[in-house]
Amino acid sequence: SSLLPKDVAIVDSAQATAISLYELLQNQNLHNDNLEVPPRINYLVTDSINRFQKVGEIFLGEQLSLSDIELIDAMG
User: Which terms does the record give in the GO molecular function aspect (predicted)?
Assistant: First the structure.
């Protein structure tokens, strides 16, 4: 027995977003299939860059360079 009616579907928003992004990148010919060139990751933050670096390194398990972290104004 289920708690939800049979016509209700549970959607994993992270998976749905990843699939949509993959399809968009493929359709726009922006998907990078070259695994020999490591991707460059830029982090856009709305709070302390130093705090993001410290917490990000804990969660991501790798060193983050301050040059890859940019403070942005989310309101404008």
Answer: racemase and epimerase activity, acting on amino acids and derivatives
Find tokens 């493929």 and name the residue.
26
Residue type, 3: L
- 49 and 58 in contact (C-beta within 8 Å)? no
Residues 41 and 63 sit within 8 Å (Cβ to Cβ): no
Is there a contact between 13 and 39 (Cβ–Cβ < 8 Å)? no
- Note whether residue 65 is domain-resident: yes
> Which pTM was predicted?
0.57
**In a domain? residue 49:** yes
pLDDT in tens, 39-64: 789 999 999 999 999 999 999 999 99
The number of folded domains in the chain is: 1
The amino acid that residue 19 corresponds to is: I
Exposed/middle/buried for residue 49 (C-beta within 10 Å: 0-12, 13-18, 19+) = middle
